[in-house]
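User: For my dataset I need records formatted as: sequence, then structure tokens, nothing else. Please produce one.
Assistant:
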Amino acid sequence: MDNLIIAGKTYSSRLLVGTGKYKDFAETRASIDASGAQIITVAIRRTNIGQNPGEPNLLDILPPSQYTLLPNTAGCFTVDDAVRTLRLARELLDGHSLVKLEVLGDPKTLFPNMVETLKAAEILVKENFQVMVYTSDDPILARQLEEIGCVAVMPLASLIGSGMGILNPWNLQIIIDNAKVPVIVDAGVGTASDAAIAMELGCDGVLMNTAIAAAQRPILMASAMRKGVEAGREAYLAGRMAKKLYSASPSSPVTGVISSSSKDQAA
């Protein structure tokens, strides 16, 4: 399968996964291994990557030498909080610049506050962060984030943690058709078919956490998600047949078919 390129770096996997909500670090690592993901998101406000000495450190099981860590601003509701969090991440990760920005607008729905997101993106890009940005599925806002200099736009499929799948494929398609940077579906994926549909539409990748971590068997679901993403990408590249409403087309040739009338004539 062809590779994903983000901020000039090449990845063979188009599945990005998070590290939250697992029962322990062992399950986290096993699930990530099963997913085949190379880009791993880390919620800096909730996960210890060195800021809390003496506590278990995620980097012990997911070393930056093996994975591309993607610090994110989950839980941030203001520009200041988001920017401060990613500055801390860069310090903890020795100058790491690839980050995921999300500025939330509502604690219940976790829908993004796009006014604050645009402001934060401008600040971070000026400070030489490579910003992958969580956004609503508004094509105009996605274009504005790209114009600011974000290296990837990440529209939601549905609300974070909802598992509702892609609720507005039309808006998503508009974003995909017009973007010059990678489009990564972020939030709302519930099962492998959701991931496959996103990839069939032409998304460059899919990011998920809850869909794997909250499954009854997370490691097995991680494996299913890997296959769903791969299948969806291959189907997109292959180019599906055209849909034909009320127009059947046999898959086998009809010429030379033996019919009952021809049998009668032979007799």
